[in-house]
Each structure stands twice: as structure tokens, then as C-alpha cells.
Design brief:
The complex is a heterotrimer of chains A (348), B (368) and C (329). Chain A contains 13 helices and 2 strands, in the order αααααβαααααβααα. With 348 residues, chain A is mainly alpha-helical. A two-stranded antiparallel ribbon of chain A has the order 1-2. Helices cover 45% and strands 18% of the residues of chain B. In chain B, helix 10 links the parallel strand 8 and strand 9. The two termini of chain B are 42 Å apart. With 329 residues, chain C is mainly α. Chain C is 71% helix and 2% strand. Chain C has 14 helices and 4 strands. In chain C, the strands form 2 sheets. Chain C has a two-stranded antiparallel ribbon with strand order 1-2. In chain C, strands 3-4 form a two-stranded parallel ribbon. In chain C, strand 1 and strand 2 form a beta hairpin. The chains are: A mainly alpha (348), B alpha/beta (368), C mainly alpha (329). At the B-C interface, helix 9 and helix 10 of B face helix 3, helix 6, helix 11 and helix 13 of C.
């Protein structure tokens, strides 16, 4: 078991998340300066709009991932739920011609249900979330493709078009950014102002201790799954709002950004730790990176490499920061075998 | 909603233009085009022209565009770049952000393979609002689209022709199987239609026994082709593929397994594995597309639009294909064993079609 | 014999063989030598992919970089042979060395920085893929050594030559975990960290060794696969992620470590390959393949759970019993 300090060992590191947010602001500032100086047009409203549009979706994906990572689980099926929700949205809006006000709640409900099913399977079988969500990724993504037969749905809803491609206040700002920030605020309220959020953190930090202290662990875990599904559904709607022509192939690329946003944002993979501002900033950083690398003329075939490297360097720096923070609090030897353990405690 | 968005911005010009463009799109595209033409400068000096060719992602099919960009850059004396969006899965979001970064960098004309036939349209509107001309190449956005025209392989006609050639080689009768790519790709649907149309023409003499889809990947294609041959090998007289990896896999399996060579196979594109199998007579032929020509023609037309103030002639030699009415065929060609020598090793794909289309430039564009 | 029957993969194998015999009677094509060769060829590749993941799972870690390493090794071997005109042996040796080195890098970063393998390999896997695309500009190398083509496509009746390396790897990995001191200490570390720590086994060394072995196995898989496609493309490995987990999980590897049923991997690979084949032989939509994989993971682990109820505690579950377990098969 990583770090045994107090009953909810890692809860006290929660505010470490803000250090990570501060580091990200610094990182964004530095890279943006570099991109602006080395290339031209990085700060044009046009470019900022596109970065915001993508970063908004990735931030919501990051939160969807964080919901479960915080509870010491993971959701490999973000893309699978995305495929189901996208297909459902297309089916409702195009095939059924349902109004948007009806379609959106239904899609959200679909996302929640899809995720709750995974949570229920995890709880009843006792399998690890990794296995459950990996299997459901195949089932959902394959099932959506099978049911829709790969059909394209051409969405014509004007409200959605405005949401995805209109502008907000300034030509540099996509309305989706507001959606992401709203989601972020709700998440912040959940984690820092509600007992449910606190329980999620507690379950993630030490499930056994949480159980002993009277928390209804299965209920909290189900809530985490449900919220993760809801956020996946929102991400699917956001994605559909600017891509308009949707199909069951959506979501295939969501895994990497969802983890990058969550992990860069300072959500500990071992659970019990979250930083909502960090997730928003991490998504912004990740998406400005790709744009910036194009602008400073990195040969385009090579752009994937720096994306991987940046994740690596960011994770390394984050770990160094944690180590320093830890050594300030505790005897250094105790934390030595932390991090690498995705599973719950095994006491000798 | 709409009003509050518009009234709040102080730098109204851009936001109004962009908003107007995106709303107008939903109704009609015709109304937007003239407004854009006004914002674009009539003639642009060579030093300012920056053309970009944007493929869907890293894929060998688009590789000739790099050579086309280099050649045209030299020939026209302007910047022509080939920029690949870093997304092996052809994610539209990544493609869009790549294009927007290039606009920010000062690129002012684009030839684009759209990763989503409608996904990218809002971006096109933002580009056109800035007076940036766009030509779809190798794949089309669906009407109403702000793209000036679409210059691509007529995949439906190509697949139909491929089926006809195969059926002729089979003396007009027999069983065939069809190998193809992702169902979510709009082109796959068109190819499927083309093959079925070709089969229908035979009035039941040629049967389409099995369609194996979703196998256009290096790990999915070989086992799928082998399983198909194992189960239907003795019943099949012909087999065709409209996608890259199934063609490579089929050529590879037929090269190694003489017992299936009674099956006439027509593949797609010019991967060396396919061309070697063809030279050795293990497969019947392959369909070529004109990727190089797509790059060359698109670059030249975009250049004329910017440098000479040309406009697209609305009554030009367009055909209606799939979801767009502004379509020009970039050509397809059946290459059989006897033609290998003539075409092998050439980067220019189908130079004859390229020359023919370039001759029609004056009909496509009307220049002052 | 009783021990054999009590393994998690025994019922799976029995069910598959039974289904195979039934299918053989129903559709005459299923039992043909060529079809069985097709299944075995795919199974050999799946087994190798699964082993590359299993050795890391054994130490309770995971690697998302198996596909990325395979892509990089593929274009290295292809590029050295095709563009640099190296000999086959030199190209393959360089490729395998690179695979080993990539795995080693993963292990060293994980241990050095005390991070989880998940996040590190997510990052390095993306980076390896990025390098492969960057070097080749997405253009595959198409001059493939004839030796590798005979390896990938050669057969005697139904016996695919790829089975030779696959069986050799399965035996080597199985034996290594069972009899080699290093293999046993990997399992000890995976099974119970504290106990291993107390008994003086270095967890750091175990993780580095596991990742290096995984990299090498990914490299070997890539070399095996080059001949199958006759083309060395950087896209190789891009869709191996789910297979790499499905094979060892269905084969009975616990995600909490301490187990390395190499034989189970091989059986699981066989089952997945057979499903892939049957769906096409019976002309079922190929889209169903993906779904079938997911459902099979459930079926396997749940049936495994029922079996384990009878035979003792399972390691597959979230709340493992707190005791040291060292087991291999």
C-alpha cells in the first residue's frame, strides 16, 4: 500500500493538485511564448478558436476519466461509451427526427446507463475495473458499429452548430469552452463541496479504510461510474456539435487524450487525488502543443513523437514534485514503493 | 442565443462574417460564395501565395502528393507544402487543428482530403470567410459545401469498372468476393454501391458471394483473406479489393499459395507487393488512382485562383457524384500484366489523365 | 492429469476443440488443412503478442507499448534490409536488439521514477509509434527477406511455420518462470511485494527484467509478422492493444501479478484466432469480431471464477486474498 499516513493517507495531498495547476500555467506560458516567437500566427484568434474547441472536448474527457481514476479505478471504455452515445444522438436526431431538447437528455441517460452497467458488473463480479472496462470497450464500440452498420448521421441542428462552431464573446472563443468550464465547476463543487465527492476521494485513497469508516462503497463506486458515463455523453455531444456528420467510429481516439488530460492535470493514478483546474489546463496544453508544433514547422510526420515525449516528461516532472512534497512531509523511505500499484491494498 | 453571440463582441467583423457564413451554410451555399469572392484580393503577388496540400493522415496513398507539392513549388515559383495531420486514424479534429495552425501561419490556399464529409465544413466556412480558396482532393465534402470543387477518384465508377473488368475476365459468370475497408468511411459505401451495380449488370450470372468489410489494417487483412480463401476458395472464380491492405494481403497470399490462383484477383493501388504479384501473373490486375495528378492539378488551380484572380466557372465540366455536384474525376486505370512495364516505377500515376484535366482548366476556371 | 484439468484454460480448450469438431462437420471448409493453417498462423501471432503482455502482468505491471515497439522494430528490420541492404540476420538482430532496448527504457523509467507502467508505456508507446512514422513518412518497406516470408507464410499441410517460434516462446517463457531463479523472483515480486521485499528480492530488478523481456517478445512478434503481410509498415501494431490484454486475461493471467500461465496464453490465442476465422467462414459480419473479443473476456474470467471457487482462490479479482502466491504453468 502506498503511503500509510493517517486513515485517508493521500487525502492531504489533494492541495498538491494546485501546485500542478500552477506548474501547468507556467508550462503553457512558456510553450505559448516559444510558439509565438518561433512561428507566426499562433496567437491569432483563428488558431486560438481551434485550440479551444478541441481542448474543451478533451477536458471533459479528462474529467470523465478522472471520475473513476479518483476512485482508484480506470475507464478504458470512454471511447466505447462515446461510440454508443454518438450513434444514439445521430439516431435520435436524424432517424427519429427528435427535437434536441429531448435527444440530449436521452443521450446523457444512455451514457449514464452504459457506465452504470460496467459499474454493476465490476461490483457483482469483483473483477478489476481494468478488465471490465477493457471488455466493455470492445463490446460497446463493436456493438455500436454492428447495430448502425457504420451508417453516417448528418446532424443539421442549428443550436448544435452554434455550440460547436459559433463564437462566444470574441472570435477566439468557442462556446464549447464554456461547456467545459461549466463541467469543471460542477466537478469542483462535487469534489470539494459535497459529501459524495469527498467519499469518492476517500474510496480512492483507501477503499478498506473507507469501508470501515462506514462509507457505502458500492454506492459511491456506482456514482463514480454514472458520472463518468455522463461526462462521456457530454463529450460525445460536444464532438458531434463540431463534426456534424457522425458515425459509430467516433471515440476510437479518446483513450489517450482522456488519460493525458487527467494525468497531466495532477490526478494521481493511485486514486484519492484530483485537480479540476489541472485537468482543464492539461487539455489546453495538450491541444496547443499539436497546433504549436505545426506552426513552428516540425515536419508533420514527426509530430506524434513529441506528443508522447511531452506526456512522459510531464509525468516525470510531476513525480519529482510529488517526491519533494512527500519528503518534506514524511520520512523519505516510506513512500519508496508507492505509485506503481494500481490495485487496492495487500497487507502483509 | 444567436443574437447575444453576435451583439457582444467588439471586434464584430470577423465574428459576424463567420457566424453569417455558418448559418447561411445550413440554408444554401450559393449566397455565401459571392461575398467571399469580394473579400479575396483579385491578384496576389507570388511571394504571398502559400498553398498547402492536406492528406487525411499518414498513409502511403497520399505519398505522391509530397512529390507533386515539390514539383509544383518549383514550377510555379510559390510555396506549395505537403502537411500531414498527425493522426493515423484520420481523426477530423486533428486534421482541423492542423489546418487552422497553417492558416495562422499564413497559408492562404488549401487542397484538402476531408476526414469527415461534413465535420470539416464549419472550418471551411471560417476559411472562406477569410477569402481562402479550398479544393477537396481525393475525397469530397457533401453539398452544400464551401469547397470550390472536388477533384477525386470517382470511387463508385472505379469500383463498378473494376467489377466489369473482373466479370469480363471470368467470361461473364461465376462467384466473386469483395474485400473492403471501414464501413464508417463514406467512400466504402460508394464502392459497395459500385461493385453491386457492376454485379447487377450481369443479371445474375455473376454472384457476389461474400463482402468482407472493415479489414483495411495491416493486422486484420491477412487472416481475413486467408479465412475467406479457406472457406470459399474452391467456389470463387474472382475476388476484388478496393482498399490498400486487403490488396497487399491478397497479393501476398496468392503469391504463396498456387492452389488459389484459379481465382482472378483485382487489387487496388500500386504497392510493390501487389505489383510483383502482378508481374509474376499471380493476380489479374490492379486499379490505379491518380494521387500525383490530384496534387498537381489542385496546386495549379489554387495558384491561378490567387495569382490571376480566376473564379470557378459554375457551369464547368462538373458531374454529380455521391453527395456533391461539383465533382471532377481525377481518373482511374486498370493495370493488367501487359501494362506493368509501362507503368511500373513511375511516380506520376496516370499522367495522361492529369494532362487531359489540365487542358480543361479554362473550362473549369474563368479568368479575367 | 488432474492438475491439467484444473487449469483455467482446460475447459476453454475443450470447448474450442468440441466446437471445432462440430463446425468441421457442419461446414466442410472449416476442417480443411488450409483453414486450420490460417487459424494456427493467426494464433501464433496472437500468442506471441499475448506473451509480451503476460511477462509484464506477471510482475503486476502492464505495458501499452507492445504495439509501438512492434511498429518500430518492423520498420527497423524492413528499413535495414530494404534500404540499407543489410543481411537478414543483421537486420533481425538489430530489430530484436532495438525491441529489447525499448523495453529496457520502459523498465528503467518506471523503476527510476517509481511510476506505474500504465502511464509510462502510454507515453513511450506513442513516442515509439511517432518515431516509426517519422522515419518512414508512413511509406512501408516492401522488399521483405525471403526467409521471413517463408517463416510467415510457409506451411506443411496445416502446420504453419510460425508455430515453431510461437511454441518455442511459450515453452521458454513458461519454463523460465518455473525453473529460472529470475523467473521465480518475478512471480514472487508480482505475487506479494512485501514478502518478496522481505526475502530480499529486488522489485526494481524484476520490473526492469519484465519490461525488457516484453520488449524483446514484441520485437520477435514483429519479425514473425513481417512475412505474413510481406510489407514492413509503421502501422504494424497499431491495433494490438486489446488483443495483447485479451490473450493473457482469457488465458488466466491475473492482473494483480504472481501468475504466468504461458500455456493458457497459447490456448487463448488459439480460441481468438478460431473465432476470427469462423466469423468469416460462416459469412458473419466482421464487425462482430470486436464484440466477440469483449464478450469472450467476460466469459473466460467468469468461467474461471466458477472454476476457482472449486479449486481455490483466484487472483483475478479486485480484492485478492492477502498471501504470497507463486504459481506457473
Amino acid at each position: 500500500m502506498p503511503i500509510a499516513g493517517g486513515r485517508f493517507g493521500r487525502l492531504d495531498v489533494v492541495f498538491g493538485g494546485q501546485t500542478s495547476a500552477f506548474g501547468l500555467v507556467l508550462l503553457i506560458g512558456l510553450t505559448w511564448t516559444a510558439f509565438t516567437l518561433a512561428g507566426s500566427g499562433f496567437l491569432s484568434s483563428f488558431n486560438l478558436f481551434s485550440i479551444g474547441q478541441l481542448a474543451a472536448r478533451d477536458a471533459v474527457l479528462g474529467m470523465a476519466q478522472a471520475m473513476l481514476v479518483v476512485a482508484a479505478r480506470m475507464n478504458l471504455a470512454v471511447g466505447g461509451i462515446g461510440a454508443v452515445c454518438t450513434s444514439l444522438l445521430g439516431f435520435l436526431l436524424v432517424s427519429v427526427a427528435a427535437p434536441l431538447w429531448l435527444a440530449v437528455p436521452l443521450v446523457c441517460a444512455g451514457g449514464v446507463l452504459a457506465a452504470l452497467l460496467m459499474g454493476w458488473v465490476e461490483l457483482t463480479t469483483g473483477l478489476s475495473s481494468f478488465v471490465v472496462t477493457l471488455a466493455f470497450l470492445s463490446v460497446y464500440a463493436g456493438g455500436a458499429l454492428l447495430v448502425t452498420g457504420g451508417r453516417q448521421f448528418q446532424i443539421t441542428s442549428q443550436a448544435l452548430t452554434v455550440l460547436g462552431s459559433g463564437t462566444l464573446l470574441s472570435p477566439a472563443l468557442c462556446p464549447l469552452v464554456a461547456v467545459a468550464i461549466a463541467c469543471g465547476m460542477v466537478c469542483w463543487l462535487l469534489y470539494f463541496r459535497s459529501s459524495l465527492g469527498w467519499k469518492m476521494l476517500a474510496v480512492g485513497a483507501n477503499e478498506r479504510a473507507a469501508r470501515v469508516s462506514g462509507i457505502n462503497v458500492p454506492w459511491v463506486v456506482l456514482a463514480a461510474y454514472g458520472l463518468s458515463g455522463l461526462l462521456c455523453a457530454i463529450a460525445a455531444i460536444m464532438n458531434a456539435s463540431y463534426e456534424l456528420n457522425v458515425n459509430a467510429g467516433f471515440g476510437a481516439d479518446w483513450l489517450l487524450p482522456s488519460f493525458i488530460a487527467a494525468v497531466l492535470g495532477g490526478v494521481a493514478l493511485t486514486g484519492g487525488e484530483v485537480s479540476v483546474a489541472g485537468i482543464l489546463l492539461a487539455a489546453l496544453f495538450y491541444d496547443s502543443l499539436q497546433s504549436g508544433l505545426t506552426i513552428i514547422n516540425v515536419p508533420s510526420y514527426w509530430i506524434e513523437l513529441p506528443q508522447g515525449l511531452v506526456l512522459l516528461v510531464a509525468v516525470l516532472l510531476d513525480q519529482l514534485r510529488r517526491r519533494r512534497a512527500r519528503s518534506r512531509h514524511r520520512a523519505p523511505a516510506v513512500g519508496a514503493q508507492a505509485a506503481a500499484e494500481p490495485e487496492a491494498a495487500v497487507s502483509p | 442565443m444567436k443574437n447575444s453571440f453576435q451583439s457582444q463582441g467588439r471586434r464584430l467583423r470577423h465574428s459576424v462574417l463567420a457566424a453569417v457564413a455558418s448559418f447561411a451554410l445550413a440554408v444554401t451555399m450559393g449566397a455565401v460564395a459571392p461575398a467571399n469572392a469580394e473579400t479575396a484580393p483579385a491578384m496576389m503577388p507570388k511571394s504571398k501565395i502559400k498553398i498547402a496540400l492536406i492528406p487525411g493522415g499518414p498513409n502511403v496513398y497520399f505519398a505522391p502528393w509530397a512529390a507533386a507539392a515539390a514539383a509544383e513549388s518549383k514550377a510555379l515559383g510559390v510555396t506549395v507544402s505537403y502537411v500531414v495531420p498527425p493522426t493515423p486514424t484520420f481523426d477530423p479534429s486533428v486534421e482541423m487543428s492542423t489546418i487552422e495552425s497553417l492558416v495562422a501561419k499564413g497559408y492562404n490556399a488549401f487542397a484538402i482530403f476531408p476526414d469527415g464529409e461534413a465535420s470539416i465544413v464549419p472550418l471551411y466556412n471560417r476559411l472562406r470567410a477569410r477569402g481562402i480558396p479550398i479544393i477537396d482532393i481525393a475525397g469530397c465534402t457533401s453539398d452544400p459545401t464551401p469547397a470550390l470543387l472536388c477533384f477525386a477518384t470517382n470511387v463508385e465508377a472505379s469500383a463498378k469498372y473494376e467489377t466489369e473488368v473482373l466479370s469480363k475476365a471470368m467470361d461473364g459468370k461465376g462467384n466473386i468476393a469483395f474485400l473492403t475497408g471501414l464501413l464508417t468511411d463514406a467512400n466504402t459505401a460508394l464502392r459497395d454501391d459500385g461493385v453491386k451495380a457492376g454485379v447487377d449488370e450481369t443479371q445474375g450470372k455473376v454472384n457476389l458471394v461474400q463482402v468482407v468489410s472493415n479489414i483495411d489494417s495491416p493486422s486484420a487483412a491477412p487472416p481475413a483473406v486467408e479465412s475467406l480463401l479457406a472457406s470459399k476458395g474452391s467456389d470463387l472464380t474472382g475476388m476484388l479489393s478496393t482498399d490498400y491492405y486487403p490488396s497487399v494481403a491478397a497479393a501476398s497470399v496468392l503469391s504463396g499459395n498456387a492452389q488459389f490462383r484459379h481465382i482472378l484477383f483485382i487489387g487496388q493501388d500500386n504497392d510493390p507487393t501487389v505489383m510483383n504479384a502482378l508481374t509474376n501473373g499471380y493476380i489479374y490486375g490492379t486499379m490505379w488512382q491518380n494521387s500525383y495528378g490530384q496534387g498537381v492539378v489542385a496546386a495549379q488551380w489554387l495558384y491561378k485562383i490567387l495569382a490571376e484572380g480566376c473564379k470557378v466557372n459554375q457551369n464547368g465540366p462538373f458531374t454529380k457524384v455521391g453527395s456533391t455536384a461539383h465533382f471532377i474525376d481525377s481518373g482511374y486505370l486498370f493495370v493488367g500484366k501487359d501494362m506493368v512495364k509501362q507503368y511500373a516505377g513511375g511516380m506520376e500515376n496516370i499522367p495522361a489523365t492529369t494532362a487531359k484535366v489540365l487542358k480543361e482548366t479554362n473550362a473549369v476556371l474563368s479568368c479575367p | 492429469m488432474r492438475r491439467l484439468l484444473s487449469t483455467q484454460w482446460a475447459p476453454l480448450l475443450a470447448a474450442t476443440i468440441l466446437a471445432g469438431i462440430v463446425l468441421g462437420f457442419v461446414t466442410r471448409q472449416f476442417g480443411t488443412a488450409f483453414n486450420i493453417y490460417t487459424i494456427l498462423q493467426t494464433a501464433a501471432i496472437y500468442a506471441a503478442i499475448g506473451l509480451a503482455q503476460m511477462v509484464v502482468l506477471a510482475v503486476a505491471d502492464m505495458s501499452l507499448a507492445v504495439g509501438g515497439i512492434a511498429g518500430l522494430v518492423t520498420i527497423t528490420v524492413g528499413g535495414l534490409y530494404d534500404a540499407q541492404h543489410c543481411s537478414v540476420a543483421a537486420a533481425v538482430a538489430a530489430g530484436l536488439g532495438l525491441g529489447l532496448a525499448c523495453g529496457l527504457v520502459n523498465g528503467l523509467i518506471i523503476v527510476g521514477m517509481n511510476l506505474s507502467g500504465f502511464i509510462v508505456t502510454l507515453a513511450t508507446g506513442t513516442a515509439f509509434t511517432g518515431i516509426a512514422y517519422g522515419i518512414t513518412s508512413a511509406i512501408p518497406y516492401s522488399t521483405i527477406p525471403p526467409a521471413l516470408v517463408s517463416l510467415g507464410q510457409g506451411r506443411v499441410s496445416f502446420f504453419s511455420f510460425l508455430l515453431l517460434p510461437a511454441i518455442a516462446l511459450t515453452i521458454a517463457v513458461g519454463a523460465g518462470f518455473r525453473w529460472l531463479p529470475i523467473g521465480r523472483s518475478l512471480l514472487a515480486v508480482g505475487g506479494n511485494r512485501e514478502a518478496a521485499l522481505l526475502s530480499g528480492i529486488s522489485r526494481a530488478r524484476a520490473i526492469v527484467v519484465a519490461h525488457a523481456a516484453s520488449g524483446l517478445l514484441a520485437g520477435i512478434t514483429a519479425v514473425m509478422y513481417i512475412g505474413v503481410l510481406r510489407s514492413a509498415t509503421p502501422a504494424t501494431g497499431s491495433d494490438w492493444l486489446i488483443i495483447s490484454f485479451a490473450v493473457p486475461i482469457i488465458g488466466g493471467t491475473a492482473l494483480v501479478g504472481g501468475e504466468a500461465p504461458a500455456m493458457g496464453c497459447f490456448v487463448a490465442a488459439l480460441v481468438l484466432a478460431a473465432i476470427n476465422d469462423v466469423l468469416i467462414v460462416l459469412n458473419v459480419n466482421t464487425e462482430a469480431v470486436q464484440m466477440a473479443e469483449g464478450l469472450l473476456i467476460f466469459a473466460a474470467v467468469i468461467s474461471g471464477k466458477l472454476g476457482q471457487r472449486i479449486h481455490g482462490p483466484s487472483l483475478m479479482w479486485r480484492k485478492p486474498a492477502a498471501r504470497g502466491r507463486v504459481r506457473a504453468s
